[in-house]
Amino acid sequence: MKIAIKILIVTMVLFFTSCEEVITVDLETAPPRLVVDASIDWVKNTTGKEQKIKLSTTTGYYSPTFPTVSGAVITVTNSVNSVFNFTETPGNGEYICTNFQPVIGENYTLKITLNGETYTATETLINVPNMQANVVQNNDAGFGGDEVEVLTYFQDNGEQENYYLYRHQSNRVAFPQYQVENDENDNGNLITMYYSNKDLKPGDVMNIKLYGLSRRYFEYFNKLLGASGNDDSPFATTPTKVRGNIVNQTNDKNFAFGYFRLSEVDTKSYTVQ
Q1: N or C terminus: fewer CB in 10 A for the chain?
Q2: In the sheet where 190-197 sits, what is the strand order?
């Protein structure tokens, strides 16, 4: 009887296995649109001269990569008409500037010329406080008490409205974790940046970054996180609905995705104890 049951189970497994078929749903594919990754980051205690802008296009749902864009002419201009040229690095969609001049509070205008159309965006370079030297680690955090929590602090400037982006990256997680905050409830106070993960081990290295944001980018990034459905990696899905500040001056129907942002950035490295 036991032998018969075993034979029946094996037969059923083979039957259902042989009936498996991979089904690919035929999804409607929209025409590709330009995607602009124009994040100008001025890391504290650096010159900020070397900056990068990356161009790609949207792609089909099943595509694992984003096609890069070549042949664009990209410039960034400040308020006194100093022009910074971004030169293409062939093959990867990256455009590099080696003489950029970052100035806190300065207004900059991005201009991209591609296939006879001109895209522009204007933003301000936003400052950010220094993170404090002390880092606090708790080894019994989380609802189950099984997470390692890392706390970092910075002093908010109470004389202005501030918006921040936190980025935490550890060697245990494939993607960094992002979080945006404002100082609405912490104006002028010491603000705590929280990060916890149950997989952190002693010796793991955390890379922590604090960015200053404009209010417009703060609102955009909140929408981007919501649309992605993944707070750990807002770029894990194609940004099909969230539009940034890039404007097509030639043909408004052929709009682009992405954002032109300028931020001062403070960085910290922490080794888990």
Answers
A1: N
A2: 131-141, 147-155, 190-197
Q: Please answer whether residues 256 and 106 qualify as being in contact, where contact means their C-beta atoms are separated by less than 8 angstroms.
A: no
Distances (CA, A) of 225 to 36, 150, 156: 17, 22, 24
CA-nearest of 171, 204, 179 to 270 is 204
| Tokens encoding 123 | 């933003």
The CATH number for 34-127+239-264, chosen from 2.30.29, 1.10.10, 2.60.40, 2.40.128, is 2.60.40
Cα radius of gyration (the chain): 24
Domain boundaries, given as residue ranges, for the chain: 34-127+239-264
Phi then psi for residue 223, to 5 deg, are -65, -40
pLDDT at position 28, please? 52
CA distance 232 to 95: 27
3-class DSSP state of 14: helix
pLDDT digit string, tens, across residues 105-114: 999 999 999 9
Looking at residue 16, what is its pLDDT?
37
3-state secondary structure (DSSP) of residue 110:
strand
Residue 258 parent element (H or E): strand 257-271
Q: What is the pTM of this model?
A: 0.84
Assess whether pLDDT exceeds 50 at residue 10: no
| Residue 143: burial class (beta carbons within 10 Å; 0-12, 13-18, 19+) | exposed
The DSSP output letter for 92 is T
Report the DSSP pairing between strands 117-124 and 107-114: antiparallel
Q: Checking DSSP bridges between strand 34-43 and strand 257-271, what pairing results, if any?
A: parallel
